[in-house]
Amino acid sequence: MFLEPTDRRYQDLVAHLGERHAGKSDLNGRPWQEHYRRVAVRVAMLNPRASRDQMEAALFHDALFHDGGGYEFMERMGLSAETIRIVRASTPPPDKDYFRDLRDMTPKQNALYQAYIRALAATGDIPTIEFKLADICDTIEQLTFCHIQEVRKQLYDQYLPARSLLEDALQRSAEERG
């Protein structure tokens, strides 16, 4: 079931995100909560048959990061077990708060991230891979316009290679399905 932007639940979840992230902005100065909405739209663009779980995971995908609210928060928001599974499967290792602190990434941390992406791609978990690809594509767009060179560097060190790995995994899956 696709979660339409006019769906009351979707509107309620987006309103909650607006309250939760009020006053926070990304490195380009845009309201932070817009990232989640853009990722949800990207999921739908990538897969017009995207599930409600994928859409809700897009909205709450940082719940397991520092100050994200955790499992209890996701359950309080009424997220399904499948949505929570997608969030968990798509959350990078806890070594770094990716998406928020890209200024001091080390080669070791980039290698950890790439290993995480390779492992995710190898699972064949299409709903999670599609969601993560949408998330990474939004981050790529944000980094493309970022004027902080040390952050922009992650475009090439981390996110473009990750996008290629996930796109390849989806292509292999499509070829296997015929």
Automatic annotation (TrEMBL):
It comes from the Bacteria. This is HD domain-containing protein. The lineage of its organism: Bacteria, Pseudomonadati, Pseudomonadota, Alphaproteobacteria, Hyphomicrobiales.
